[in-house]
Design a protein that fits this description.
4 copies of one chain form a homotetramer. By secondary structure, the first copy, chain A, is of the alpha+beta class. Chain A folds into 2 domains: 181 residues, G protein-activated inward rectifier potassium channel 1 (Immunoglobulin-like, Sandwich); 97 residues, Helix Hairpins, CATH 1.10.287.70. Chain A is 27% helix and 29% strand.
Amino acid sequence: MAIFNNKNKDERELGFGTKNYNSRVRFLSPDGSINVHRAGLGIGNIDIYHWLITTSKLNLILVIILGYITINFAFAGVYFFIGPEFFGGLDSYEPFQQFMNLFFFSAQTITTLGYGHIYPIGNAASIAAAVESLLGLLSFALATGILYGRFSRPKAHLLFSKNLLISPYKTGKAIMFRIANPKQYELIETEAGFTITLNNPETKKREFLNLKLEISRVNFLPLSWTIVHPLNEESPLFGLSKKELLERDAEFIILIKAVNDTYSQTVYSRKSYKPEEMIEDVKFKPLVPEVDKRGRLRLTVTDIHHYDVVN
Amino acid sequence: MAIFNNKNKDERELGFGTKNYNSRVRFLSPDGSINVHRAGLGIGNIDIYHWLITTSKLNLILVIILGYITINFAFAGVYFFIGPEFFGGLDSYEPFQQFMNLFFFSAQTITTLGYGHIYPIGNAASIAAAVESLLGLLSFALATGILYGRFSRPKAHLLFSKNLLISPYKTGKAIMFRIANPKQYELIETEAGFTITLNNPETKKREFLNLKLEISRVNFLPLSWTIVHPLNEESPLFGLSKKELLERDAEFIILIKAVNDTYSQTVYSRKSYKPEEMIEDVKFKPLVPEVDKRGRLRLTVTDIHHYDVVN
Amino acid sequence: MAIFNNKNKDERELGFGTKNYNSRVRFLSPDGSINVHRAGLGIGNIDIYHWLITTSKLNLILVIILGYITINFAFAGVYFFIGPEFFGGLDSYEPFQQFMNLFFFSAQTITTLGYGHIYPIGNAASIAAAVESLLGLLSFALATGILYGRFSRPKAHLLFSKNLLISPYKTGKAIMFRIANPKQYELIETEAGFTITLNNPETKKREFLNLKLEISRVNFLPLSWTIVHPLNEESPLFGLSKKELLERDAEFIILIKAVNDTYSQTVYSRKSYKPEEMIEDVKFKPLVPEVDKRGRLRLTVTDIHHYDVVN
Amino acid sequence: MAIFNNKNKDERELGFGTKNYNSRVRFLSPDGSINVHRAGLGIGNIDIYHWLITTSKLNLILVIILGYITINFAFAGVYFFIGPEFFGGLDSYEPFQQFMNLFFFSAQTITTLGYGHIYPIGNAASIAAAVESLLGLLSFALATGILYGRFSRPKAHLLFSKNLLISPYKTGKAIMFRIANPKQYELIETEAGFTITLNNPETKKREFLNLKLEISRVNFLPLSWTIVHPLNEESPLFGLSKKELLERDAEFIILIKAVNDTYSQTVYSRKSYKPEEMIEDVKFKPLVPEVDKRGRLRLTVTDIHHYDVVN
């Protein structure tokens, strides 16, 4: 790549802009998430539903537990302020225990459990309890929506090979990576897009170039798929060396689009490779699925990472 | 635009019809909502679910609270009509307080709270309570659906630059505006359509013309995207002046289509600019994202409004 | 149409097959539903969720009420069989009233209301109540799903003009009909397909022919859209008369596809016209939206039916 | 097929790879499910939501019942450990019966039924009950999501004819099969893809070849659709015999894509035929829908299997 293969450049507008960013910033994290933080609108940048849908399970459980404690604490305070004498069955004259019992009464009210061994007496206490039970139902409706939203979110947990390979291909070479669907659901109509972004020392700009694939679409993805960009004269990377890609701070960006046919949802999966993750003069070990006892082809998906050295 | 550039007109059927409407009516509100009220079918024009999904949070909360009070009031009336003597635990011989206690009993029934310190005696009271609790469950099912529907509604809260700019472009000029996605979710496969509608003084009709974009599609939208219509000889607006656009009551109509990849939903965003919002002889200030402490590119989305004067 | 315009036939496979059906059977009902009953698999033809989602509100309410009564009746029977003495608070020694009270206890259990003035004593009664409350929660989960499914179902309640018109068009004639969206939500990217099916007396077969539209797609549909098939030499119906269409038992089939942008759902609307609904030598009355007090264009959607006689 | 019709091969990348698998393994099961088991990630291969959505009704009911018993057993254990003296209304001094009553108390708590004849006394018991009722609400939210997910899952229960037929077609022959939609919902925009996979004895590889269809798309599918691959000179199977297909372990793979217009969902249906299921010198019996009492066309969908012998 001493001479950058300009005549074959198919510059692609990816939406990142073409400014010459400080190098050493990765556009996509290795897991495919876009490495950008958008600010400027304060809380207007935050979409609370998005956060609840995409945060970790642990975070969600913490939010639910803390929310439950806080709201019961708040209502226990309201009930205590109204007066413990307006609640039947409290069974205590000690203020702390009265507060605790009102806390439990609140929990029994917000979940619409309502044992009734503690119950409101008089209008103020009854109104507060009526408000809390409505709030409980609505919170529960929200929780139902959030749990369903998390569960039914489009999924494409694709497994990508750890490395990009430069392998022999026909009479020349090609850049290759492999993907597999590790899950039980099927992906169909799978399409791949392959792009490179790298600095152009002449224009001092960052360029985004489309890399043509041998095959860019498969109908099914039951086993694995080796995605191949031939390094022939049509490639903008013809004559590339790994060293030059490192110098130009290149980043390979992959977008996979497929249909998850259990839910008929179009799903997207992104991946980024840096030149450090490229290996030269190797080729992928063929995957040979065995036939298992039940007569099915058995694929060990983690085998997609394996490669052999080529002499 | 003394001579309207007829040979390059790509008249576009947008669905607004081509009647010469009373001028000074905006087709789209600045926020992108279509400025049309459809009547003629009475309540047949109203889709209650649509209203509940799209109305403001405040309206929804008011509807829920008023509905809750009304329905409890109605059932309290039914219970009072059946007779306070058919309810155990009412603890009062004063009619107003009896009614209030039946109101609270209704609230405890419709939320399926059921403390039980007040309870129905006899068939009429028990049947009414059985009906109310079923109604409560179904109302709650509806509320769950509505809250989920609001939360999971496709979202494309795009930020558009406040102004349309006429900026230098190559050897001539171009109309430009900028968009950014202010939220945490990613938009992919973003497409833009750009149209102008304006009066034609010769035909006395309103015309809708397609304005060709330099690039009409980007794969990602992590930062901002400047959308450019070159004012070259191919443009129907070649030779335009802001004054003429004002006279012809022009309106620029933009439709952005993208995929929100958290939900794999295709989302749409509309925007309208009037010539009053155009600024000549300026250009957008470049957006230079910084790298923040966590190694991410940081974009201040509100910077998309900024421009510099061009000499 | 004395000579059937064979050279322009663009025969279209609609999926109805091309057998010469007994004439006088309409393929589509006037409301667009397909007039076919599929049998042969017994209850395997029935999709219960589909029925619950698409049946009338009245049917759904009846199913819910009857289901509620039936299930409470059944559980009351179980409880009565276990023995009224195993229930505290029954307050009656009269078997019918005991049964009624167990019926109310069942209603309080299945809705998880649980006042507790009636309560199970002993293992058999407690187990039955535990089963019923689980069943209640699951039924309610189903009801939530069904109500949400009904509410969120894709909607395209298009209004079609009552008649197909044969109107003057340029130097000749055209078949026209008009559609409008009567609802508050917006339809975008609206596409129309127009087909005719009619008997061919020569081949004794039923033919399906595509009718080309002047414009088959609009970006928005805020007002109305007049859909036009020009009866020029390219039309397979060039030279048609209403009388011949009646003799050949023609049926016009329309499929409209649009995106409801509140939900980003692709929605479909079908419509069928018979030659009896065609009117010759008329043209649609132009729709002139007024500007209402709030500055919006106001369209009376039912005006799309109106036409004027042409001399 | 003595000479394999190489010049017309349109080799198709289906995503199965092109290795020469042990023959006698079917890629698709007769019901269309892909006959592959993916392993290598341990429980990382398992998607619990997918399993709950796609498992049989019986499995789901078993999971719910066992889960309900287990969780109540666990909480009964916790309550018993806290001490039966901390629960009012237990009405027993016998440990086993105390445990049983705590089991029923647990069931009344997790369903938020809360009769209240048994109730917690003191902080430990009240906290445990507050936790259980929250857990109950969340479990119920999950159950709602799973039941809705199962119900609303995209469906295309297509019926395929039992056999692939080699039938006379124009002046030659064609491979044909028939499909029908047995359900009440309508399928529109139905598309078919037809592929064959077979061993190539020369290259020792498995090939995937696209088989061109006479018509590959229909707008509606109210009745049946006969899908036809003409065995003309353009077909890679021109000159085929059933015997050779058997020797090469051929498998016909069909992918049908359609829109279920009740839910506007794109749905997929797969089917595989082996040469053993081919019948030569027959043709499908025409399906003649009758008109039923309500004026609808009546189709017996199971008639799609029937064929007549051709002389």
